[in-house]
């Protein structure tokens, strides 16, 4: 977890590779649905263009499908999900029904000025000044409570300084999770 531009995709991919499990990014899944012009993709695009979160029920359905895939049976890394307490509860229920649970939540800590600089540098079409500002507001208002919810649950929240070289951040995550890096 972390604000937009915190490095969730990069670090999630590195963690998934080191663990030998798939990484599922709801953003990537939604963008693919948009490219394919599916009804879900068109609906998601409307929310994403406005800097809003896609509705919980849509996201939970997508996540439920991907974590049920055969390649996810040994585990998986979720990138950018859950983003709301409703999604966190939904994920907990989904996993509980399967006799599973989250091992940990990794929270990448990056200040707003650094986030703005990173998002402006990556130049994605939905990274305009107004959208960046709105996405940070949405993150603070709706996603930060998810961390509080996990703090109150039995899932470990691991806060990581998300500023530095990619390899340094990867090492911090691996050390905090008690796993070596590959």
Concise structural overview:
Helices cover 57% and strands 10% of the residues.
Structure write-up:
With 182 residues, the chain is mainly alpha-helical. It has eight helices and four strands; from the N terminus they run αβαααβαβααβα. The protein has helices spanning 8-19, 26-35, 39-49, 56-67, 85-97, 112-122, 129-151, 166-177, and strands at 23-25, 77-79, 104-109, 156-161. The strands form two sheets. A two-stranded parallel ribbon has the order 1-2. A two-stranded parallel sheet has the order 3-4. α1 packs across α8 (166-177) and α2 crosses α3. The longest helix has 23 residues, at 129-151. The protein starts with 7 loop residues before the first helix and ends in a 5-residue tail after the last helix. The relative contact order is 0.19. The mean pLDDT is 87.
List the helices and strands and how they pair.
Layout (H helix, E strand, L loop, with lengths): L7 H12 L3 E3 H10 L3 H11 L6 H12 L9 E3 L5 H13 L6 E6 L2 H11 L6 H23 L4 E6 L4 H12 L5
Parallel strand pairs: 1-2, 3-4
Helix pairs in contact: 1-8, 2-3, 4-5, 6-7
Strand order of the largest sheet: 1-2
Query: What is the alpha-carbon Rg in Å?
Result: 16 Å
The biggest beta sheet is recorded as: 2 strands, parallel
Strand content: 5-15%
Terminal CA distance: 22 Å
Order of helices and strands: HEHHHEHEHHEH
Indicate the structural class: mainly alpha
> What low-confidence regions span 5 or more consecutive residues with pLDDT below 50?
none
**Share of residues in helices:** 55-70%
Mean pLDDT, rounded to whole units? 87
Anisotropy-based shape: globular
| Helical segment count | 8
Number of strands: 4
């Amino acid at each position: 977890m972390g604000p937009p531009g915190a490095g969730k995709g990069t670090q999630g991919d590195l963690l998934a590779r080191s663990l030998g499990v798939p990484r599922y990014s709801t953003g990537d899944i939604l963008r693919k649905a948009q490219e394919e012009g599916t009804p879900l993709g068109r609906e998601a695009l409307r929310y994403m263009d406005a800097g809003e979160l896609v509705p919980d029920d849509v996201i939970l359905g997508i996540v439920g499908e991907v974590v049920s895939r055969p390649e996810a049976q040994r585990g998986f890394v979720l990138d950018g999900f859950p983003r709301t307490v409703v999604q966190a509860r939904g994920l907990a229920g989904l996993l509980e029904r399967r006799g599973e649970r989250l091992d940990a939540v990794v929270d990448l800590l990056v200040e707003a000025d650094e986030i703005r600089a990173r998002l402006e540098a990556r130049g994605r079409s939905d990274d305009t000044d107004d959208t960046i500002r709105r996405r940070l507001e949405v993150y603070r208002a709706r996603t930060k409570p998810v961390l509080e919810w996990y703090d109150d649950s039995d899932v470990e929240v691991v806060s990581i300084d998300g500023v530095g070289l990619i390899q340094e951040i990867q090492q911090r995550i691996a050390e905090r999770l008690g796993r070596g890096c590959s």
